[in-house]
Design goal:
By secondary structure, the protein is α/β, with parallel strands linked by helices. The protein is built from nine helices and ten strands. Helix 3 crosses helix 5.
Length: 276
């Protein structure tokens, strides 16, 4: 039987046994490499099912990172009945690419899942995007941005997810935001905070009050803009927590809140099964 064994150390960080996806599939061919999707399915899942799905994007400042960044969250959510995926995408250190490619790959990833929903056994109308830090930027960019589409993508397939689960996400790429010097030539069309629209998906956001990269005020502005357009945006702040806290001492509480959010949307059923 598929299960997840977790325990919290005295220091508050999470330890888990080695986790491996059920399958890894290529979702995109690029000049540099084939990009893969790391897939965690619920028990007895099969092609033709209509399970809700979440696609996670790792953090790393558009410079580095690995799909395994969200393996623990994916394993848990698959145990709760969702199909959970962790997407690889191009980064500067590995492929000498720019932040543009990160967003292009993110959009391609969502389109691939939606276009192949029947074979993957997922509901094309219940696809969430999640991510942390720059991965949170990629996830929110798939929902907010009109541009930065791959030329080889079928643009008739929507890249917009139906929900967002964001951990200390990069929202603001403006002059006072994150990464401006790297994206200053195109920041206005690249910054999710500056491209919020009325058709944004419902979102939940997790942020530490001592995050030195993402000020709480930025997330509050994102929430305010979302709410003014009639879009749900739940904001959870954690006192004294720094950047990347969600995979450390607050893993349990943030994943529990993500579970509650996804349950409220009908993506999960029943009570959370995450154990301390």
């Amino acid at each position: 039987m598929k299960y997840l064994v977790m325990s919290l150390l005295i220091a508050g960080s999470l330890f888990s046994a080695e986790i491996k996806p059920d399958k890894i599939m290529v979702y995109k061919h690029t000049e540099q490499t084939d990009l893969t999707m790391h897939i965690f399915n619920p028990e007895e899942h099969k092609s033709g099912d209509k399970t809700p799905c979440i696609v996670f994007f790792f953090g790393g400042g558009w410079v580095s990172g690995s799909p395994s960044h969200f393996y623990q969250q994916a394993e848990y959510l698959s145990s709760r009945g969702m199909t959970a995926m962790c997407a690889d995408y191009r980064t500067k250190n590995k492929y000498e690419t720019s932040p543009k490619e990160c967003v292009r790959d993110g959009k391609s990833a969502i389109r691939w899942v939606r276009a192949n929903a029947d074979a993957l056994g997922v509901d094309p109308n219940m696809i969430a995007a999640g991510g942390g830090s720059a991965g949170g930027h990629v996830a929110s960019a798939t929902a907010a941005l009109d541009g930065f589409n791959e030329k080889t993508d079928n643009l008739e397939v929507s890249c917009r997810p139906n929900a967002l689960v964001l951990f200390n996400p990069v929202f603001d790429n403006g002059p006072n935001g994150y990464g401006y010097e790297r994206v200053k030539d195109y920041w206005r069309g690249f910054s999710p905070l500056h491209n919020i629209h009325k058709d944004m998906p419902q979102a939940t956001v997790f942020l530490g009050t001592k995050d030195d990269l993402i000020p709480v005020s930025t997330a509050e502005t994102f929430k305010t803009k979302m709410n003014k357009l009639g879009n749900r945006c739940d904001l959870h702040t954690y006192k004294g927590c720094e950047h990347g806290f969600f995979n450390k001492k607050k893993f349990y509480v943030t994943l529990l809140e993500a579970d509650k959010f996804l349950t409220s949307l009908g993506y999960l059923e029943g009570k959370p099964t995450l154990k301390k």
